[in-house]
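quick one, two chains, predict together pls
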Amino acid sequence: MNAVNLAEHMHTLGLQAREASARMASASAAARSGVLRGLAALLRANVQALQADNAKDLERATAAGLAAPMVDRLKLTPKTIETLAVGCEQLATMPDIIGDVVGLKQQPSGIRVGQMRVPIGVFGMVYESRPNVTIEAASLSIKSGNACILRGGSEAIESNKALARLVQQALAGGGLPAEAVQLVQTTDREAVGHLIAMPEYVDVIIPRGGKGLIERISRDAKVPVIKHLDGNCHVYVDDPCDLEMAVRVTDNAKTQKYSPCNAIEGLLVARSVAGAFLPRIGEVFSAKGVEMRCDPEAWEILRHVPDANLKEATEQDWFEEYLAPIISIKVVAGIDEAIAHINRYSSHHTDAILTRDHVHAQRFLREVDSASVMVNASPRFADGFEFGLGAEIGISTDKFHARGPVGIEGLTSLKWIVLGNGEVRS
Amino acid sequence: MNAVNLAEHMHTLGLQAREASARMASASAAARSGVLRGLAALLRANVQALQADNAKDLERATAAGLAAPMVDRLKLTPKTIETLAVGCEQLATMPDIIGDVVGLKQQPSGIRVGQMRVPIGVFGMVYESRPNVTIEAASLSIKSGNACILRGGSEAIESNKALARLVQQALAGGGLPAEAVQLVQTTDREAVGHLIAMPEYVDVIIPRGGKGLIERISRDAKVPVIKHLDGNCHVYVDDPCDLEMAVRVTDNAKTQKYSPCNAIEGLLVARSVAGAFLPRIGEVFSAKGVEMRCDPEAWEILRHVPDANLKEATEQDWFEEYLAPIISIKVVAGIDEAIAHINRYSSHHTDAILTRDHVHAQRFLREVDSASVMVNASPRFADGFEFGLGAEIGISTDKFHARGPVGIEGLTSLKWIVLGNGEVRS
């Protein structure tokens, strides 16, 4: 596509999305759920066809020498397709929140004032490789009564096109506009530049991918961005604390998986329990080959652990999101220093205190300025499904609008409604 | 101030605000309310001193040949000061929402997940002339546990400095950091450029003023902006409708005051009631000297009204925010055309339907994509106080985060909290 055609294509998508969004917003909950169930059926009926289209992406990826784990992320199997179908069905059965009215209260003037939950309008989604996201985003968009424009990674273009065709078929089959979910049909990089700069058509952009992509989009977008930057998450082991539990949770928080954003990168330990706790977790980390970057106090304790892989922590380590078998460890005086350290160095994603002290627990919940704050639970729980949202379109590290795991609610806004009996302002 | 000094001044304000915000967030509700009551007492004790400082601004304004209404807006009188004091006291007695937890629910994993309302952090406020805004913004900031940096108009600099000194005195007197409310001490225009581009220190910008100011800030800001652009509001007179009520509400919506953003600019009338309704409202408008810009059908009916000031409406009129004794009038086929017209031309601020029809009322509430949508009430009610927010920092015409009148809640965010018993993710 040349520049003129691309601009036209994007504006057409935008205009069609805006028009479709009005029809989606006024569609009944039953109609939207029907489309989701129809989509589940279509996914199941088209497993082979989807795999055939997916094979083209896989071939191209292999030929291009993409690393095996990346090729793996691209793959659509009968199992992943079934998971997507089940996800659509689960969304269909979830309560519908569009049109919910909250807080309708009588005012002194006689009018009754409340707020109604309505779709936000049109969102644009920019994501990389995994074709699953096409269905996850589409189904959330349908459930929340929005329209969306999807821009997937070029590696998955054939898979995404096939999935998007099924979504449009499901929409049309359910009497809703097919343009409510549109896939950008070109892998041209400039398409993203257009998508994020059409405030007349697109209300919010949700990027999912590497930090570079998200920073670039945030910088250039002319509309709000629900963005997820780093996950530099912490566990703070307080005094008093059940150390058995602390070992279990800290281990889970770091080693259950190394790559998710909600895995921890930093461990803080109250000085008075450091001597008892650090050797125990040190043995666990040592056995699993986790490198420990320690402040001098932690080092002094951990150096007695056999085969411990210790390094001296630098100031930069406190800021680091390793996403690897590496953890920074620091001994702190207590709750005050722990909160101060987290608020200074964490990425405001997810941080947990492990404690028996009620006052400390309350202070940590209140004062730690992160999207998810936990007491006696593994930060790995910071996830839309684990939080009961039924779905997740992303995790926001911002404070504005949506914060933390973003589900259906994050794709809606509350407008004011006023019910009167002819009242006038005096 | 030269450029280097200005940059330093702004960064000092930012750094101090960020530090103060952490202390404000952890301050008790009682401490914050105490400061508000202290501020009310200080305002009352300093009426004369405030008037003396205000006199300097008034003199300068008069000498500079500022128009009388503008000079009037600048004026602090014993009455306006008392109103500000009462406002602080009312805020103090309002329920505190910081720390509220909503929706704490048990999840299948065993963890309990909910959301806690917390301050957003630091907001920057950019406003013009009226010094009252200094106290309104400061008191809302204190109530909501935020820190703020205020940048008032240069015409009111002496008044603003005097008011901000009292605010800081009240904060310090109540044991809270004086830097929780800071006034930019220079009238240098470049200061705004710095304020809106310090994401490390400022979480959101709230501009209050003319459209030019708000567009400029929205374009250049590096942080989210709660912005209020036009108020092109509508009343739609439906069929069936109590026409007595319709005349009363339409009159109020247009003529009670012409300048507020929630006064209407457009009147839509269902064809089947146009013949009965338009002559009656036409007489009212004619008597009050309101110019009517009509589509051909409305013209045909209204031309029989004696002394009616009629003009032909152009396409541009449907977009116009007159803020003057001018109204556009259009006859529509019914509810569908009314909703389509409003969604196309209104500024998504406030629109009302006057109707007896329940289905039409529900459709209007649901389908009109505006921040405030009303049934049988005057759009002039779209206001934080009338909506029961207890205060208003602005009105947002955006859908993202805060929509419509913004009170304390708009200055907060919901973070996730998780309470566990040592659960780990499997």
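The domain at 3-226+405-418 of chain B is CATH 3.40.605.10 (Aldehyde Dehydrogenase; Chain A, domain 1).
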